[in-house]
Amino acid sequence: MAQEGSFTQFNDVEKKGAYTGAGVEAGHSVSVDPAQDVYYDPSKESLMTRLGLNLESFKRAPGTTRGLVAHGDIPPEYLQHDNPLLQQKMKPRHLQMIAVGGSIGTGLFVGSGSALGNGGPAGILLAWIIMGVMLINVTQALGEMAILYPVSGGFYTLASRMIDPSFAFAMGWNYVLQWAVVLPLEITVAGSTVQYWTDAVPLAAWITIFFVVIIIASALGTLGYAEEEFWSSCLKLLVVVMYIIIGIVCICGGGPAGGDFDTYQGARLWHEAPGAFPNGFKGVCAVFVTAAFSFAGTELVGLAATETPNPRKTMPSAVKNTFWRITLIYVTSLTIVGLTIKSDDPDLYNGSGSDISPFVILMDRARIKGLNHLINLTICISVLSIGLSCVYAGSRTLTALAETGYAPKFFTYIDKSGRPLYSVLALLVLGPLAYINCADVGGEVFNWLVALSGLSTLITWLSICITHIRFRKAWKAQGHSVEELPFKALGGEYGSWLGTILIIIILIAQFYIGLFPIGGVESAGERAESFFLSYLAAPIMILFYVVGYAWKRGTPRKASEIDLDTGRKSWLTVEEMRIYRAERAAAPFYVKVYRMLFSN
């Protein structure tokens, strides 16, 4: 067995080569996909096959690459099983940038404008901070589980194991539906973003162009997605940092002469009408869903864990970087938004796409030439980035649904380039729904399509928190110690309870705002429409659960009966982990500070 890392006494092994151990012992619950018993070495294929650029690459992969590093003395019966057929192509830099910048997109650049109108400068800060606190706990819980179990399907597979297969079926299909609907939405937004420069080209033409771009990027598989995310995230971070610096200068009155920011601004917009909370409590409630949409995709690091060789090494920094993204990117930039744009500014409501972006409006008002175009370009690239994330997240979850028997078996097909081919095609085939927006009633139809998955992100995060609580309970019930865990969530199970409570409060707030929207309603029909546009995902989730239960009759397991071994990649004992941590504790102070803030 190959050694991994410098601590050879931990017997870290990399699962490579043919398996020659014993069969599965009685009493062990492990996956038995025959393809996982076959070793496949992609390095023997041509470069074109590995990149997915020839016909050979579309053929089914004959087995697993066994590229996931495992730590400790693994029982022989688990060596051959539960090796994801997906290939481990992601590098540490890919995972870091997916965590830091992957979900930055229209929710922040464009959605923050409407959120400012509803919640005011204080309302958007309060809502985003509450969502941020919740999300830090979600990602910490996800990191703890994904490092220990970097299984195909990530949090969906773990929810099926730790909570209830029927609930996981509902959550998994709801998650796939969410990304399937968001894909055409993002393609449409990309088209409308380009119209900031010219409307001479019809929207349908831009939709076609951007859809083709996403198809080509998706054809490049995991590596294409990872590289696109890396470079687009670099651009997004650069632009946000530039915006923050320029915003601070403008607030202090350092803007170009003749612009709106050539005199000191300070916090006057918080005090002048309509004030910090123009719509009061209801306004803050209305912002929560926009905030959730802006954070959507943060959980992708949990899905990506199975496609990086050593999650124990790369995942902790990705998880911790979430805190810095929330603090430095979202909270700081939204503070700038609230200090530079009035919540009743007419430009927030007149137009669409980047026309109503507070980022673009600031540059226009300050008369800083050129940067408005750079921000618009960044928005366009961000939209395409999220569109590609839709295909990635939806296809990986659909494949996991098929692997657990909750979707047609052909969705388990993974080709020699590591692409879940039929799952990718299933997501892409829904892209043309973007053309609905070209019709006269397209906007109304699309609103209802988006409503189908409006709460899916919150439901997914809730399931991650509950899964972690159940995991900790099972871990304790089966005689394990938290000292065995290679990465421990910051707040432990209490953090997951806090995340659960906050999500439930947010769901209640959304229920309230659905029944009593800002501005009120004139009839019962309008009230019903407002409610279902906000809460249609809830009955869809219930329907999925009923179908899943009727199909498989799955029920929650006792904590003592939950399978904690299949797919586990860390088998280090308490004593071994104590030695490991003692060695790390001997590092210089600055190294320990860096590890505490950014690593493990």
TrEMBL record:
Residues 94-555 form the Amino acid permease/ SLC12A domain. The keyword Membrane applies. GO terms for cellular component: membrane. It is found in: Membrane. GO terms for molecular function: amino acid transmembrane transporter activity. Its main location: membrane. The keyword rRNA-binding does not apply. This is Amino acid permease/ SLC12A domain-containing protein.
